[in-house]
Model the fold of this input.
Amino acid sequence: MSYLAATEELAGDYATAAVALREADDVAAWYDWPTSPFLVQPRCELLVASGDLEGALSLAERLPDDEAQPLTARFVGEYRIPIYRGHRSVYGIDLFASAGFFALASRRDFTAPARGFTGFSKVPIDLTFNLGLRVSTNVGGFLLGLSNAIGALPIYSEAR
Done:
């Protein structure tokens, strides 16, 4: 439910986001769940949007400061070229290209990196890309991408 609230906030519909958060509270009342940043962020954004900065700050300060939490980062850029626009069963077909990086690491990966790696290979970053067609239809979206095909190929490194 909090993901729905975050989506509604991105769309600018704060009233619907508030309803989704109230429903999430009702579900959370059935369980003894720990406080999660994924649940707190939409609430903080809703409080900031309503002008309650003190409430948002007090809510954010209650988050646990856990050193074991992984550090994550993701950045992806995409460019689309429309090929076809329709109105009935196929709404559109786009040629697209995307590139970016994804990083997932613990604090230990930076303080005591794995042995056997030197230079930039110590940094836990994965470069990503995709090239293909995106089709929007009345039954959903479909993606035909080149990175899916390349991901199935066996790639050998220098160290065998």
In short: The helical segments are 2-11, 14-28, 37-49, 53-61, 107-111, 146-151. Residues 73 and 103 are 5 Å apart (CA to CA). The chain has a mean pLDDT of 76.
